[in-house]
Amino acid sequence: MTALAEGSCGSLHLDDGLDLRPAVAGDAPTIALWMSRPHVQRWWRQDWSVERWAQQIAEQSAGEHSLPCVVSLDSEQLGYVELYRVRHDRIADYYEYDVHDWGVHVAIGEPARTGQGIGRRLLAAVAAAVLRADPRCPRVVAEPDVTNVGSVRAFAAAGFETVGEIDLPEKKAVLMMRPRST
């Protein structure tokens, strides 16, 4: 069984100079800063304290639901990624999931790095890495806010297909999937 399928992994070199590594408590100040920035806070609504982020990272890292990660481009940290098992997430209530489906949430925290196509590159690279790491995974799932046009476009450009819209408690979302066959 792969490390990713077991819910943990070391650093992963992705395509296009991107690297992904598990977040640790020491990343909490950076993640808290990113989450407080207006372009991220608007969608994530997690502008929490450093202490709360440290606790969140520890809880996620110890559980089976999700894996918090920091993404870098050419050694510069620029964003946050959560990989999660759909079967352990509320999104499982909204479609006929496969027990091996993975989901992804992405935030480009550095404002100067937005609008450059990095999100699209990152989403494509993360989806490809998940599908390589877990051969049982038939698809990677995402649910960006329907009004977050930039995010929806980035997912589509990264090979995610729109399946429909779903009403989550805090947003209307576009259910998108990157199937293995893409």
Q: Helical percent range?
A: 25-40%
The global form is: globular
Radius of gyration: 15 Å
- Report the end-to-end length measured between terminal Cα atoms: 23 Å
CATH topology of the domain at 12-138, by name, is Aminopeptidase
CATH class of the domain at 12-138: Alpha Beta
Helices and strands, in N-to-C order?
A: EEHHHEEEHEHEE
Low-confidence stretches: 1-8
Number of strands: 8
Strand sequence of the main sheet, in spatial order?
A: 1-2-3-4-5-6-8-7
For the largest beta-sheet, the strand count, sense and barrel status come to: 8 strands, mixed
Strand content: 25-35%
Named at the architecture level, the CATH assignment of the domain at 12-138 is: 3-Layer(aba) Sandwich
Compute the number of helices. 5
* Average pLDDT score: 91
Structural category is: alpha+beta
CATH H-level homologous superfamily name of the domain at 12-138: Gcn5-related N-acetyltransferase (GNAT)
Pfam families: Acetyltransf_8 (PF13523)
Domain N-acetyltransferase: 18-181
Protein name: Lysine N-acyltransferase MbtK
Pathway: Siderophore biosynthesis; mycobactin biosynthesis
